[in-house]
Amino acid sequence: MINSGDTAWVLISSALVMLMTPALAFFYGGMVRRKNMLSVLMQCFIILCVLSIQWVLIGYSLSFAPNKGFWGGFAWFGLNNVGLEPYADYAATIPHQAFMIFQAMFAIITPALIIGAFAERMKFSSFLIFTLLWATFVYDPLCHWVWGLGGWLRNLGALDFAGGTVVHINAGIAALVTALIIGRRKNLERNVPTPHNMPFVVLGTGLLWFGWFGFNAGSALAANGLAVNAFVVTNTAAASAGLSWALIEWLRNGKPTIFGVASGAVAGLVAITPAAGFVSVIPAIIIGLLVSVFCFTAVSIIKPRLGYDDSLDAFGVHCVGGIWGALATGLFASKAVNPLGANGLFFGNPRQFVIQLATVAVTIVYTFIMTVILYKLVNAIMGMRVDEKEELIGLDLTQHHERAYTLLE
Amino acid sequence: MKLIVAIIQPFKLEEVKEQLYKEEVNLITVSEVLGHGRQKGVAEVYRGTKETGNLLRKVRLEIAVNENFVEPTIKAIIKGAKTGETGDGKIFVLDLKECVRIRTEERGSAAIG
Q1: Does the predicted interface ipTM exceed a cut of 0.85?
Q2: What's the CATH number where A165 sits?
């Protein structure tokens, strides 16, 4: 039975999540050097184009068609049998296609998150092929396991409200793999790249925060109390994490920075994502305060020591924050918030924590191996990295024959 | 005293800086400029309209040196900036009448280094 309020909310949420990909483009774009600004915007926007089509043709079917196997299969190819009546196993009160388009936006932003790891040095053509393969062979199966009917992690009882595992840990591990294999950018030691436009980073963060209400509260798939809970804890965790990152910088470096608050807010949003429909507001504050400690340690202390070049900290924020969020869900989940969920460790159910841990481990192993394979495959056929001169000139001019800013009129 | 002005490819700046540091030429001023030489450059295309013959982005270095540093500086710039293709740029060497260090009010050769 279609409910108009629920349908309206899910459609609006889909639009909110769609906006997150352009928001991410500006968040990441502000962080790169100006010679690569357009390449980042381009990568985000072309993902929006390519994966929108991939999703309605095969992606949705591979992810969500009922099946106990590796993925959903081709039963819903081209949205065959995905109509305007509800599909009760996913969402009983909205048209099936509303659920489909909401999920499309998640499938789009996930590969876009990985861009942060290899920004400023990947060949555009290879990036396109790699992204398409990654979406099909990494995102779609994993999405099926966690959310699809018959998915084995779903049947195991893993809690992932809005995509901590499927989106953030998944993209975060792929980010680590690509950063490791593609190697460091040139001249990093001599000329430490600084963000070329910090206001864009802040603008992107603001729009991400805004869009995340659709991401998390929309994942209730109804305009109900659960959506409100998700909305409230999302805002609370983002706020706590933004504040806590600033405080850490203040204590450690003497001054709080806007880049820090922005990074913290995004980390908080990442961490609350799997938990948004299962935890109440006090745990949300704890999740937010602590995620900045973990992510700050990852990007400011561990990364420089290990020396891998995750350009814009896609791993440090999304994977680290995502793992904390998934585990925190296993700690703080409460049936008082969501009777359809489960209790976590602190509510007397240690088993849930173990399930969360297992899901995280499966995601890390699967994504790690598959990303290595797909990267090596595309690299062998067409080469993933631009040559040194192109990298020095910048991707805007060499990959797209455009540049972001003029010097004179 | 000479003032060395060099116009180079922007993407060669890091290499030129490194070569200059090796020759212990540490005091340089860098600015971004637009210029037009023989080079066609990387074409830019906007909605199908190809923009060639445009002014190209270059980097200008200004380096004030004492006589004994003139040749090492020129060699360092060439070593860092040369690709052998059109567009590598030019080096101009100008006589420098006076140099004053504002902080100490020193003048001449003593003020340069």
Answers
A1: no
A2: 1.10.3430.10
